[in-house]
Amino acid sequence: MTATTTAAPVATRSHVGWGDLLWLTWRQHRWTILGTGALVVAVVGLALGMAWHTDATGDTHELLGEWGYIGTAQMLTFAPTVFGAVIAVFWAAPLLSREYEQRTHLVVWSQDITPLRWLTGKVVLLGVTAVAFAAGLGLALVKLLNSINEVNVQPPFPPFSTSSFEAAPQVQAGYAAFGLALGLAFSAVTRRTVPAMGLTLGVFFVTRSFVAGGWRPYFLEPLRKVEPYGVFSMSVGTGDDQSWRVKGYLADAAGNQIRNFDVCTDVNSHVEYTKCMNDSGIHYVSYHHPIERLVPFQWFETGVFAVLAAGLFALAFVWVRRARRV
Amino acid sequence: MTTVVEPVGDTAIAVRARALGKRYRSKWALRECTFDLPEGRVAALVGANGAGKTTLMTVLSGLLDADEGSAGAVGRVAFVSQEKPVYRHFSAAEMLRLGARLNVVWDEARARRWLARFEIPLDKACGKLSGGQQAQVAFALAIGSRPDVLMLDEPLANLDPLARREVTAELLSEVAETGMTVLLSTHVVAELAGVADYLLLLAHGRLLAGGDLDELLARHVGYTGPRSDAPPVPGTVVAARHDDNQSSFLVELPAGQPRPVVAGQWTERSLTLEDYVLAQLETTRKGAGA
Fold first, then answer.
1. Which of B8, B84, B15 is nearest to B56 (CA)?
2. Contact assignment for B142 to A324 by CB distance below 8 Å
3. pLDDT tens digit string along B42-55?
């Protein structure tokens, strides 16, 4: 045993813990987290305030122009879309690239912590925070949209509308996780903050648009419904049916698709038109998803983004692990 | 970072490399590098720009994987890269906090003493410090983590001449106190006089020479005498220069033999580190052309 000559005690412990990673993550990202948090709290506060007032008064206080609660709610439903992008571009894209650019990865990875442990710490801590923010945002918006729908004869936010569908907390959480993973992957691969941010933003919106516009209507085979023209025309706009009509067309008695104005062109009134259509045996063929599919679809969309996120996280980790240069 | 790749016996070797190779795409930055650095030494890693010094250090410190061979350091390694990076928004005190948080061993007093020695303000953001001051923060962080092996890449590069001398002196006193092994790279050989006691000489990604500095210098002697094709003593000629009526040789004497005595017209001259390094590097330049 050698006697130590150091007067001050040397702190020794067995490993670097989560508390230490939490300290580092908070110290490095506190302003980003606080800034995003403030925006989330503002949106949640506004949404819940409007929801409470709508519930209490049974009215959405529509003023002249667009700025009633419905209009404001429509604006707020953009927040979730924007939130995922904010996580992707401002939280994740600089996460590794800024370290590479300022060479500070060499500092932090030269301590008693491996790059993968460091990265895991950051991803878990920032991920949990981002997902919690996203879910909170979603819950508040769902509450607001429900309250508004409640007091309107014709609900302005039908369940399958983009705003309603995407406000679901689990869907929001999926977008946030995907955003984080996407930004991180570009951050690891490009090692440059600005290109990583740009690519992340572009790919985030392309992916979101593709899933929402191109894929979501076909998560399951839509149900086919054929109804006589008269029945169809009576149901339009009543809002009773909460199902999601993906597509529809007019068909003649033989079932062939026809264009709207190919038949019954020489009529003078709506009544005459309907009668003519019925007499000609015109049907309306529609493809739709019943309301029962709403929650499964939302979970499926969450799953899609969760799988994408998992793949991108794996890519980022492998990329960092197998780095060919420092 | 702990990077024990293979157990090193009780021969008190601190850093070991075996046929180490590392390439960037198809270009080898480091090849067939084998050496044992004994514990408690201050080793200088010397070589021209682009010789592979940084690559060797990043592989030894575990930041990069080798493509060939193996490398290992015993115990905990601290590495300070060439850029002496620090988090710009952290104060010096917060950088030490980071060291305390991310290391299993932390000596706050030692780190603070280093900062105090170089009069670095503790509460100012590192981004507002000068390059030299940032380097001191990076050194303090490395010193505070009480590494078994401290690797410094071009540690003196952006310091003024006075700071260079002070940093070297402080470093040596840390070595004396803690018994750590230091590996520092440089391409300015003059900086090393009186600092390093072990030499690793790299050229074009290969280890040209390595060993105890005093031993290396004792085994290499310069001879000057009448024009001649061969030196007056047996040994390997490292460098030879001839003019009209005079020849000078740098000879590597055979190991394990007493230094031969020369007489007559020959004079012998002991080498300085700089002479030795420059002569060795020169041979590679000629060798590359041949």
1. B15
2. no
3. 999 998 878 888 99
